[in-house]
Each structure stands twice: as structure tokens, then as C-alpha cells.
Design goal:
Elements: H1 3-16, E1 20-22, E2 31-33, H2 48-54, H3 61-69, E3 73-78, H4 84-94, E4 102-107, H5 110-123, E5 132-136, E6 139-141, E7 148-152, H6 153-162, E8 169-174, H7 182-200, E9 207-212, H8 217-223, E10 229-232, E11 236-244, H9 251-265, E12 271-275, H10 279-294, E13 302-308, H11 314-318, E14 328-334, H12 337-340, E15 347-352, E16 355-362, E17 367-374, H13 377-385, E18 393-397, H14 401-406, H15 421-429, H16 446-458, E19 462-465, E20 468-471, H17 473-479, H18 485-493, H19 500-510, H20 523-530, H21 539-552, H22 557-562, H23 567-586, H24 598-609, E21 613-616, E22 622-624, E23 630-633, E24 646-654, E25 658-665, H25 668-674, H26 676-687
Helix pairs in contact: 1-9, 4-5, 6-7, 15-16, 15-17, 17-18, 18-19, 18-24, 19-21, 19-23, 24-25, 25-26
Length: about 700
Amino acid sequence: MGGAGCARQRQLRRALAGRMEARPPPAKRLKTAAWRSQGGNYATGRNMEQQRRELPIYRARAKLIGQLRHLDTAIIIGETGSGKTTQIPQYLYEACIGGHGVIAITQPRRVAAISLAARVSEEKKTELGTLIGYTVRFEDLTSHKSKIKFLTDGMLLREAMVDSLLCRYSVVILDEAHERTVQTDVLFGIVKSAQRKRKELNKTPLKVIIMSATMDVDLFSQYFNRAPVLYLEGRQHSIQIFYTKEPQNDYLHASLVSIFQIHQEAPPSHSILVFLTGQEEIEAMSRTCKQISKNLPQGSCQMSVLPLYASLPPLQQLRVFQQGPKDRRKVILSTNIAETSVTIPGIKYVVDTGMVKAKRYTPESGLEVLAVQQVSKAQAWQRAGRAGRQHSGICYRLYTEDDFEKFLNMTVPEIQRCNLASVVLQLLALRIPNILTFDFISKPSPDAVRAAVDQLEQLGAVERKNNQIILTPLGIKMAAFPLEPRFSKTLLVSPEFHCTEEILTIVSLLSVDSVLYNPRAQQDEVLSARRKFISSEGDHMTLLNVYYAFKNTAGQREWCRENYVNSRNMTMVMEVRRQLRDICVKFGVHLESSRADTSNVRRCLAHSLFLNAVELQLDGTYLTLDSRQPVVIHPSSVLFHSRPPYMLYNELLHTSKCYMRDLCVVDPEWLYEAAPEYFRRKLKGAKT
């Protein structure tokens, strides 16, 4: 090994020396559950029925069925791996609890809903989509025979818009309740109301079950009318927790040091899972790990560094689940997607940076930004639990025990930190008369609700009559689309600009995970491949060009690889587009193409995204027109080296600066044309 490699090795050892000290948490926290039998990863060679019998929940099966048969509402707390998610729906079905109705199991993430449905269907030896099915946004694999149905929270909410009593369901299981997504929180109130109304109307009772591995039990029990809490014991393996002696100023460097300490001392079969905040961090860490591992002493264990994040192409995501060579260690660098949604075999060590990227909304400024923040204690325990799925494990927490004690116990509910425009639109579509008095388990701030109403009013979705907020005819149509309000409006006004076909494509592209794959290690190749698609009018038009090229090649996988396009996500775009087109046809939206006239497309976008407009200042910086917030162009944008006078952005990402992502060049006249009164007020405010 060269001198530089030796020097780096010594630097890593010095940095780590004395850094970690074992601080076992309370005894009740030293154990966690084993690997969840999900997604086909669990002991694939053994008899399926035998696997079910070996799950910890099986020992409590008879008692659990007896309790659930006589309870209207129950809260079930069970370790990850106890089998609650896959087995309880089956127990209810097999015991005929709920009669002839459908058993619904909600999940916060689509990937979990799909993989769980596949697993249960496999256990029941039925074809997926018959007895067991799933429904996620833009994908429905169910039939009239489906009696156990996995679906995302958002999809059950959309069903409630048509049937507020949820009459087709006899049991609703709200799983992963601790995640407290905005859709989950709204669903709590909707399901609770449906259960009460069905009882008042002497209809078939609705049984409600709330499940989680960790959550605020008292809060949930009180909200659901003091519902009893049932505890399940899980298959447990001990987990040793290590904290840092001192706070870490650079969690990325601390992660690197931890990875190589483990790598030098542990057997190659022991995999490492590291929690980072996003794609850019993961790719940078991956490059550094690969570079350092090349310079390790001869005879050292080899290292396979595998990234895991939502926009990664599916084939590359699958690599983290595959068995590698015995003499190579797997190091998985992941976002919080690995906390609960997926189960990765072979993890012995977890490195928890204690950080996560989450949305944060400020109603005063009207800005919703993605920002890096500390995890909650509940998230930290979920992460630690990844190390104890198959055998005893170790979790390195890159923060002190004192700092951990200062973490929030539970994650702040998304409904208290996000833009509520979609929520308010949904509740109005559900005929909730007063949003402020809706039975939220955790109430959002009145300011956030008012800001959402103001935003919907600007979009023309609501109006005020007799001190009440009601949907306009446009708002009723907007609520029918499974989209953010601004995108629903974009589609509905597109006939005025003769560009519905283009807008359908753009909205579909923005409704799935990124279709562009940008490996940092191949930036020159990526830039060369993308050059032919780039439009000086912005990222929306560039994406449109990519879509046309993909369609012209009939979606060939080789073309996708050559152009760094995620073929699976692009195929999903086409399916989303088809479904959105069907909704447009249902509402009589005239389908027309603007062909080469892209100015009409951008003008249409200005009529619905005007709240996200920015203006170039004399000093070369940008300010948002709404709140005069300083913002900069994200390096991934095709406009990074440009300075257009006016632009629209899709979202803001806050790290060291407030970055704009997905940009579109617009004329100021289009903005005033879209909302003249709004911009007159903003201009007046800016001058004063």
C-alpha cells in the first residue's frame, strides 16, 4: 500500500481512538425484534406455514383473536419482526372477524403497501390481486374478490371522499402510526368519525386497529376513546448502543471513521447500514469509502459500498438485498427509507448520524423547504432496531447520550410542519364544514390553516360565503385529482393555452421519483448524454424533451442506461399520465397539443405556480416574489449557470443556502395576468 493510503489509515485510527464509549440504554431498550418476514427475504427455503408458526405473534394468536373479536377499537404495540403487519389481517380473515367486509391495512409508503401485499399473498398461496390486493397512487391491483387490501393512507382518504362511512370495509388497520404523516393524521379523524356514524345509523360496525412498534400510547388511547392497548412480545436479539464521548461537528467525517473502524475489526459477513440524509451525501460518502478502501493493507477484507435512496434505479436498489461474496463486506449508505419501509438482510452494525431531511413550512413566509434536522428518539430506536433483525447487533450513535436525551420523544407530526393546502382541499371535499374544529389528533396551527385557505383562494379553488369556506366549481374538480392543488389547477386551465398534452406529461414527470439518474462518479458522461435534451427555458422543458426521446425509442432499456434515465420511473410516468388523462376526459377537459410552441406551456405553468415565482435582483441574487426570501439555483438545474429575470420553482431545499429545484423561465407579464390583485399587493408591500 502507498504512503498516502497508510497516512489516511493512521488518520482514521487517531480520529477514532477514544471517540466511542459504550453507554447501554435502559434494559428494556437493549432488545429489539428480529428480521421481519416480508418481501420474500425471510428464510426462503422453508415451508411458508412453518415460518408463520415461528413468528412471535403466533404464540399470542388465540388470545389476540379473542380480544379483537370483542373490541371496537384496539391499539397494538409490537416489536418490528413480531409479525403483526402480515399476520393480524390473516388472523382476522381466518376467524371471520368483520364478516363479509374488506379488511384494509394502511401504510405511509407505497413500497411497503406493495411488498406487504406480495408477502401475504405468497403466504396465502393466492395470486396477488385476488384474495389479497393493494392500492397505491396510480396503481390498483385489487378485484371484487379482494378481502385483504393493503393501501396507502392517501388512497383510503380518497375513497372516503366518495364514501365517508367507508361502508365496504369491516376492519381498518392503521399501521406504522408512529410515523405521523399528514395523511395518517387526517385519516385518524375520518376513520373515527366513520366508526361513530355507522354505530349511530345502526350499520355494520367498523372495527379500528392502530398498530406501531413505537408511539405515544397515551395520546392514541385517549384520542380513540380510551381504547385498550395490547402489547406483543417480539423475537428479540440484544443490541449494544454506543454514543460518542463528545458532540460531533462533522457527522459525515464521524460516519467515515466509524465505517472503517468496524471494517478493520469485524468479520466480512457482518454488513453495515449507515443513515445519511440524502442522495448527494450518500454519493459523496460512497466515493470516499471506495477511494480509501483501495488503499487498505494487502489481505484486508474487500468492501462493497451500496447506496439506497428513493430515486435510485430499481436494479441498483435490489443490490442491497443480494448476497455478496463471502470475503466482501456490504456497506449500505441509506436515507431514512431503511428505517421501516424495507428490510435489509445481514445487517450487524448500524451507524446513526442522528440527522434526517424533512419538510418544514412557515405560514408567515409561505415557504415550505426541505431541511436537515435531528431525528426523534422514536426514529433513533427504529434505526437501532435494524441491527438486531437476525442476530445480536451494535448501533453506533454519532451523538452523545446527553444530546440524545434532548431529542424529541416522537417525530413532530407532519401536519404541524407542512403546507396544508392539500389537506384543506381534501377536508372540504369530504364536506367538513369547519376545518379548525376538525377532530385532529394533533391540531395544526390556526395560522397554517389560514395560510392554506389563502393559497387555495389564490388558486381559485375556494371562496368565502357567509363566513364559510366552500369549494368553487374549479375546486371540486381540483379535489378529484390525486395531485397537489397547484398541479390540479395546471391541468384544468391548460385548455386555455392549448397545451393539455404537454402539461399532462410535465405533471406526470413531477409526480414520481426523479426520472433522471445522476451518479456523481460519472458526471462528465452524464453531462455529455444530457446535453441534447437541455432547454434554455428550464428544467420542465428539459424533462419534456427527455420524455419525448424515451417515447420515440419505445422505452428501450439500453437507451435509458446510455442516457442515465430511470426506466422504471419513466414507465410509471406513462401510467400516471394515462390515469390523469382519463380524469381529464371525465371532466370534459379538451385535450390539445401546443406542439412546438413551448411558450404556451410555460404561460400555463405561470397561471398555477405563480406563488413560487422569483425575481432577479440588481446584485445578481434572487428573491421570492411572495416573501422576499433570498434563494439560489440548485446545481442540478439546467439553469445553474444562467440568470433569467423571472422563474418559477417546484420546491426549496435548505442546507447551507435555500436552493430552488425544478425551474422554469417565465415572463413577468404572465405572472400579473395569472393573479393581478395578488401581485399588486406584493409589489406594494415590497416598495414599502
